[in-house]
Amino acid sequence: MAEVQLLLLGPEEVGKTLMLKRLQTVTAQHNLAQAQQKEDLGEAPSTIPTVGVNLVTLTHNKRKYTFRELGGAMGPIWNNYFKESRNLVYVMDSARPTQIASSCIQFLEVLSSKETQDMPVLLILNKIDIGGCMSRSEISNLIRLPDILACARQDITVLECSFREGTGLRGILKWLHEKSSYVSK
């Protein structure tokens, strides 16, 4: 079975671990359409902050995806893991406006690395279900997302999600399938 190595990054408490748990639930279910309904996913499982590295493997559409989730506190050494991955998922918390600027700086540092230049990138704006969260337009204006997309060498896709409710999981799986041409066996 073909395997894709992915790196999952983002500041602390943005929902990276919950995303992986939700994707495990969805991919374990045979009918993806049903899995998108909130009732089918059940309550959001509890998570604890990732300290170090968390490896999670999912199987979807006859492909194996191994996510290497790095704790947000590991930001200064994320670059040590770039060579081991083919795709990159970066999560921002749209409900914490005070964190968006620093999250953007980390994201730009990741994009500027030589090892990430050819990686497809999925930028996820999580927690859209929380009242008072910033809209995609507000975040886009604040971090100058159009400029980032225009200047980056990477193919960047942006998705809005709520991992707690399960919103956007289908988009993540679709992105995985479309961008998994970088496959190692």
Search tags:
alpha/beta, six-stranded mixed sheet, single chain, 185 residues, 7 helices
Task: Describe the protein.
The protein has helices at 16-28, 32-35, 38-41, 97-112, 136-143, 145-151, 169-178; strands at 2-9, 53-60, 63-70, 87-93, 121-126, 156-160. The chain has a 6-stranded mixed beta sheet with strand order 2-3-1-4-5-6, with helices on both faces. With 185 residues, it is an alpha/beta fold. The protein starts with a strand and ends in a 7-residue tail after the last helix. Residues 30-39 have low confidence and may be disordered.
Lay out the secondary structure.
Blueprint: E1 2-9, H1 16-28, H2 32-35, H3 38-41, E2 53-60, E3 63-70, E4 87-93, H4 97-112, E5 121-126, H5 136-143, H6 145-151, E6 156-160, H7 169-178
Parallel strand pairs: 1-3, 1-4, 4-5, 5-6
Antiparallel strand pairs: 2-3
